[in-house]
Amino acid sequence: MGRKILLLLIILTSFIISSCSENKNNNSFIGITVYRTDDPFANSLKSNIEKFISGRAKYIVNDSQNNQTTQNSQVDNYISKGSKVLVINLVDTQAAQDIVDKAKKSDIPIILFNKAPDLSVMNSYDKVWYVGTLSEEAVNLQGKIITDSWKSNPSWDKNGDGKIQCVILEGEPGHADTKIRTENLISFIENSGIELEILDKKTAMWNRDRAKTIVDSWMSNHNNEDSDTKIEYIFSNNDEMALGALKSVQGFGYNKGESDKFIPIVGIDAIDETIKEIEKGNIVGTVLNDSVSQAKAVSDLALNLFKGETSNPILGTAWTLDNTKSVRVHYKPITIELPDTVNK
Ligand code: BGC
Ligand code: CA
Questions:
Q1: Which residue of 87, 105, 209, 321 has the smallest Cβ count within 10 Å?
Q2: 39 touches ligand 1 (CB under 6 Å)
């Protein structure tokens, strides 16, 4: 009798063990998080990643709703459910090390995308990769749109002092794109021989409505009859904020097509709405931040890692890794009125 029970127990235990490990394999998946889906650029990355992965691997995707604590528990949950690859758009780049440590502890490969981590994080684990862009490239292209358009439109110098009185809408603090897109842009323009007077710069957190509120107050302070330092150019770290700026200046009678009152605005991303405004002549230009290619790179690497290709995740793809284990997708300038040379 005792032997029978023992035998039954052994059979039962081995059944449970085998079905557990089978479960883990069958359910293995790619665990994806996006820092917030109400950011149109991040949402475009998300939907393109889903498009490229769908039908080729199981995946789970979560919106971290701009909350790092939420994202941490999403990652913990992926790990405990047996995720084979982690694909993470950080909420806060300062949390990169914690997230990578979690992956490392469980020996799971991880791809970070869109929010560039510090190099020390990339060096802390052999199975972490990054997919993004080189922010400097966006600056050079946006800078050229600004300097060329300024030179070919002398009437934009409202007070005729030869300098650009500008304001700058900045993205989220701590984001590599914000820092570089602001600081390097200022030096790019100054190095081109154009003097800048920065009337103000503020973060609108990549967000359209916040940008509108900020520009509303700038416009009331500067672009009135009494002020001799009128805003002559609005530089925006991204398109969402450029669109908020457009809405604001339109409220003050500028950039409406039919009126001759105009304040040049320039963005980065090339989202559809901005392209339409460029076509109408209401926004001067933008720079294509290619979310489709970035999503394709993320997906190609993730699918390779999913297959176990952890020693060479770019195998069989068109991507290359730089010396920081990062794929960098190129930016492209988008304007309509500028001379041909700008687009080359
Ligand atoms: C984009 C922004 C976006 C941000 C999110 C940047 O690369 O230009 O539009 O809000 O990424 O992290
Ligand atoms: Ca001026």
A1: 105
A2: yes
Range of the domain at 59: 2-133+290-313
Which helix (DSSP H) or strand (DSSP E) does residue 17 occupy? Answer: helix 2-26
Task: Give the strand pairing for 285-288 and 332-335.
Answer: antiparallel
Q: Left, alpha or beta for 19 (phi > 0: left; psi -120 to 50: alpha)? A: alpha
DSSP label at 156? Answer: G
Residues 151 and 278 in one domain: yes
Q: What pLDDT, on a 0 to 100 scale, did the predictor assign at position 165?
A: 98
Residues 6+ apart with CB under 8 A from 108: 79, 83, 84, 85, 86, 127
Both 281 and 294 in one domain: the answer is no
Query: CATH number, domain at 33?
Result: 3.40.50.2300
Same domain, 149 and 257: yes
For ligand 1, say whether the CB of 212 is within 6 Å of any of its atoms. no
Question: Among the atoms of ligand 1, which is closest to the Cα of residue 269?
Answer: 8
Phi, psi of 281 (to 5 degrees): 85, 10
Averaged pLDDT score across all residues of the chain: 91
Looking at the structure of the chain, the number of domains it has is 2
For 43-80, the pLDDT digits (tens) are 999 999 999 999 999 999 999 999 999 999 999 999 99
CB proximity list for 28: less than 8 A, separation 6 or greater: 58, 82, 83, 84, 306
Query: Which two three-digit tokens encode residue 327?
Result: 């794929």
Secondary structure class of 130 (helix, strand, coil): strand
The amino acid that residue 255 corresponds to is N
Instruction: Please indicate, yes or no, whether residues 225 and 275 belong to a single structural domain of this protein.
Output: yes
**pTM (2 decimals)?**
0.89
Position 343 in a domain: no
115 lines ligand 1 (CB under 6 A): yes
The helix/strand/coil state of 215 is helix
Q: Are residues 153 and 88 part of one domain?
A: no
Is ligand 1 within 6 A of the CB of residue 289?
yes
Q: How confident is the model at residue 260 (pLDDT cuts 50, 70, 90)?
A: confident
Q: Are residues 77 and 152 in the same domain?
A: no
